[in-house]
Amino acid sequence: MHTQPLISIITxxxxxxxxxxxxxxxxxxxxxxxxxxxxxxGGSTDNTLDCLKPFADKIATLxxxxxxxxxxxxxKGIKRAQGEWVYFLNAGDRFxxxxxxxxxxxxxxxxxxxxxxxxxxxxxxxxxxxxxAGGPVSLNDFYSRxxxxxxxxxxxxxxxxxxxxxxxxxxxxxxxEWFVRLFKSEHIKAQxxxxxxxxxxxxxxxxxxxxxxxxxxxxxxRRHFPFPVIVKNYLLYPVIWLKxxxxxxxxxxxxxxxxxxxxxxx
Length: 266
Description:
The chain is of the alpha/beta class.
């Protein structure tokens, strides 16, 4: 039987008393036996810290201090984690079921694999049309979209030491920019697993600030993508803007629900 590596589940939170308990229960209910919890709290002023007390014997590290945003907090968690692999289950997130971690690590992982990624199940889709997203991707897939949700990924901790941590100058797209760095690497591999890892709450910050996210995408594309791809994505800006505008106008209408049903059922 292969060894079961230590998995660090990192939870970033701030004033999350209304949802942190469900998130941590989701982590503690995992059947996989070798897990540590790392909590990075941004200095909550509600009773978030009180909500952590029932999980005290499960929490390996607790940081509670002001941070410079979610990616700064995620970087702090990585640096304090002891596991061979790290996973972000931030406040409000939860695993798809209690077997997820065991299923992902049911077989040995190749030594050159730095990222394991699977699928997510959406929740709170504005039209009510939830769906499963995720599949094998390559670097080319990043040229036109965000093909991986960080909620579906497990990362070998040492890879952050090789590639660097999340770039905190990006407020919405730092995780995608980091994935691009990994997929560009010739020595670090990514492995897809056909497992629904977590639920993905659609109306998050990136959903409500899509044009800001797209501007960050254009900025890091200048560092990482071929020139023709950069030009294409800049030319697409007005198309993306119009699409976002139409979605906001049509959300809640029958025609939009019909469109989303047709799109995701296919």
